[in-house]
Design goal:
It is a single chain. This protein has helices spanning about 30-35, 50-60, 115-120, 125-130, 140-145, 150-170, 185-190; strands at about 5, 15, 45, 80-85, 90, 95-100, 105-110, 130-140, 175, 200-205. It is of the alpha+beta class and about 210 residues long. The protein has a single domain (about 40-205), classed as NADH Oxidase (3-Layer(aba) Sandwich), CATH 3.40.109. β6 and β7 form a beta hairpin. α1 (about 30-35) crosses α6 (about 150-170), α2 (about 50-60) packs antiparallel against α6 and α5 packs across α6. The longest helix is centred in the last third of the chain and has 23 residues, at about 150-170. The two termini are about 25 Å apart.
Length: about 210
């Protein structure tokens, strides 16, 4: 049984991520054609540059005005991106929040929490064996204050955009990933110690196929 996560010492420690790569030899058409859900992983570690590239693809900043890789209604950005690291070179096992503007991750809790998270996700083994799992979580009030109830719909659209970006980037990196939407919301909140305003929408385990 992996150790139970514990609170990180304050102030939270920020880890600067490698700069994202802005070009590759992989055509977008080939990536679209090759994308498949991958639920079984080899156990090989990811490196920090791969985690950085995936985080940037999902929610990274792409310009001085703060625009991101995924569109957001009204530019209100209702989503937060987190990384549950377990087997990543250069990133100790733990739960991290991605800081888009600085391209950093900030430690929230320490330790390998895959077993607990997989249990909260109805025992889905992809989470138990992934080198890292990404969480897309929403704070609805960021967008509902302007758009009301319709803002929730816009947030779910935004989550789909960001998740697809991450999946396609995984393919371009030669990695496997799968979207997980079947989980106990309250249990995920407990395992990750999310706030009451945070609504988990997607878990995305990633690893080498």
């Amino acid at each position: 049984m992996p150790p139970v996560a514990r609170k990180a010492e304050l102030p939270s420690k920020a880890i600067t991520l490698p700069e994202p790569r802005l070009d590759s030899k992989v055509a977008i058409e080939r990536v679209l054609y090759a994308r498949r859900s991958v639920r079984e992983f080899s156990g090989a570690a990811l490196d920090l540059a791969q985690v950085a590239q995936l985080a940037w693809a999902a929610e990274g900043v792409t310009g001085a005005e703060g625009h991101r890789t995924a569109p957001s209604a009204g530019g209100l950005y209702a989503l937060d991106l987190y990384v549950i690291a377990a087997n990543v070179h250069g990133l100790p096992a733990g739960f991290y929040k991605y800081q888009q503007l600085t391209h950093e991750v900030v430690s929230i809790t320490e330790g390998d929490i895959r077993a607990q998270l997989a249990h909260a996700a109805l025992e889905q083994t992809a989470i138990a064996y992934a080198a890292a799992t990404f969480l897309l979580s929403a704070v609805y009030t960021r967008i509902s204050e302007k758009y009301g109830e319709r803002g929730i719909r816009y947030t779910h659209m935004e989550a789909g955009h960001a998740a697809q970006n991450l999946l396609l980037q995984a393919v371009a990196l030669g990695l496997g990933a799968v979207l997980v939407g079947a989980f106990d919301d309250a249990a995920v909140r407990r395992v990750l110690r999310l706030g009451k305003a945070d609504m988990p929408l997607y878990l995305i385990p990633v690893g080498h196929p």
